[in-house]
Each structure stands twice: as C-alpha cells, then as structure tokens.
Amino acid sequence: MQTTQLPPGVEIHGKQIRVYFRYDCATSRERVPGNPADDKAITYAGNLVASVRHEIQAGTFDYAKYFPNSKRLKENRVEHYLNIWLDIKKNQTADSTYKGYAGIVERYIRPKWGLRQANQIDYIDIEHWISEELSPLASKTIKETIALLSQIYQLYQKRNPGAHNPTQGVKVRLPDRPDPEVWTRDEVDTILSTPAHGGHVQELNLITFMLWAGPRVSEAIALAWEDVDLDAGVIYFRRARVRGPFKATKTRRSTREVELLRPALDALRDQYSRTAGQEPVTIEVTERDNRTIRIEKVRFVFHNSNTGQVHNSDSTLRDSFFKSHLADAEVRYLGPGQCRHTFASQMLSAEMPLEWIAKQMGHASTAMLHKHYSTWIKADAFNMVARANKRLKL
Q: 255: Cβ–Cβ under 8 A, 6 or more apart, which residues?
C-alpha cells in the first residue's frame, strides 16, 4: 500500500507510475516500471525525474538513455516528419515533381538524418554535412537538398512550436546562371534541311515546329488536332506530358493561344495528312491541383515513328531520333529542350516585341525573358550601329 508522498514530477496514472518534466518547450510524460502502491518504486521514480531535470538544466540530457522505448522518441525522429512531408507533397504536387523530391530525400536526407532526433541536429551539423558529404554534388543539388530539409523542419515546428530549424542561416551559393546554349540560324537551317534520320519525317516535323513555335517539349508532344486551327494559323496549348502522365500546362499563363510562324505552320500542314484522320483516344489529364482529373478525347498531332504512339517524354524523342539526326547534320548536340531557347533567341535577335515573345512562350512577364532567354546571337542580329547611324542621320 502506498504511504510515501509523491515526489515532484511523479504521478500515478491508472495503475502506472509516470514522471513528467519540461523538455524542449513541451511537457513530457513517461511511464516508469513498478507498482504504484510500492513506496520503493515511487522513490525510484522521484530520483529518476530529479536526474532527468538536472541533466536537462546542464544540457547533457539524452532522452534515449532514460526512455529508450518512448513514443516521443519515435515521433521525434527526422524520418517521422520526413514521411509526413512526403505524403503531403504527393497530394500537392505533380507526379514528376514528387518523384524529384522523393529522389533527393531517399538519396541524401533519409540515410543521413532519418533515425536522428530532430531536436539533436544543429546548424554546425548541417554545415559539416554540406562540406564533407555533399560537396561532390552540384551546387544546385545541394541547395535543393537543404531547401527540402528546411521544409521538413518547418513541418516539425508546426507540431513543436519553439523548436529550432538547423537549416536556418545556411547559405548555398550558386554559380552565375550560364546563358542557354542555342543553335545559330545557320545551324537551324542545317538541322531542318538534313533528311530525317531513319525516314522519321514526323519527328523532323516536330523539331521544326518546336524551333519555330517555342513550346516546351512536354507541350509539343501533347498537342492534339483539337488544339489546332490551320486556317487561322493558331494553336492552343492546353496540356503537357511529362514522363508518361498527361497534366495541365505548367502555369495558368502557359495555357495559351500561339500564332504560328510559317515554318511551324508548314510542319503542321504536313502532319495533317499523316495523323489528323486517326481515331481519337481517351486520356486523363491531371489539373494543377493534382487531384482533379479531366477526361479528353483527342487525336495527337505528332506520333513516335517507331511505336505509332504519342511520344512518352522528351527522352524518347532524344534517344530515338534527335541525337542521330544531329549527327547526320553534323551539328553540335544540344537537347530537344534547347529548341525553345533557340526560338527565344531568334525572336530577340530579330527585335520582336518582348511582350509578344512572352505571350507566345507562356511567360507571365518580360522579366522571364531577361532571366532565362537573354542570349543574343551576334551572327543573326541586325547591325545595330549601322541602324543607329541611319536613324540618327549620323
């Protein structure tokens, strides 16, 4: 029978002895083995909680040492919040974006920090990690990794107000953004005048279209005849295809009407006889909320010459046609995505209005052009000095 007065920090809960103490801005309660009616067990619990409080005050407290089976330990591990964060992102982001996040988490964050207690990692730990283990990676990858870890800690802080985020103050500097690599006008002409490698005319039409309309590859391969008005010379980008699934365009601004330059329009006219008569197929398109699905029946403009199906991603176009075609043309290799950069540079070199270029490419403002597509191809640009002399009558 209990006769001893309960020491500070000790309580009886049902048939269990518990100790309670303030730690890391929250009150912890942990069970202690023993019979609540046993004075010896209560005395033990009092000594235990006294030791805990002493070590907390001294800054030497090790939670796992005293309570190795604590639920709090499991819920305080980085991987606990890492898993919650991944579940949230799976519902919030596009499939391709989620796979990118998960790849970084599983390669770099979980192996290093997953089993660590979230409150036991500090700023110096992160800096050592960057300098000693992440240093072989590209600066962009390091920055993305730290940014994701910071988001995981922001989630941790929601559950633990007042907790620290060890990534706070960590800075990863990036090198100056290089100008996009693009083809000159002479290279473009050579690419398009070279006979289609393997007789794959549809792929050459697709490249022509991308070079002179400026879409993202994901938008071009998802273009359907239902989006094309050949008589008016305009098209509408309404969807994209990234690594398999169809989804809404990247941003609301990216859903747009595009006026076609002559080479792009001619490429579509050639494609019309090849694919416009095919039966429509039913596809699912994921909206930007990554939850809503819209059903469409469409006839795709460009097909993979090897499979007869729409291209699955930029990699199928690159590996099945583009690399070999550029080799045939004896033009330096750049990926299919550089068609968009080349279009922007050609339009800038031709002094087309920035607002018109931004609208064609689906950018919200001309600032994006200056940031991403500022390449000026000197060989293709007008002689600006001569033009200034003429206009100023110098």
A: 236, 237, 238, 248, 249, 362
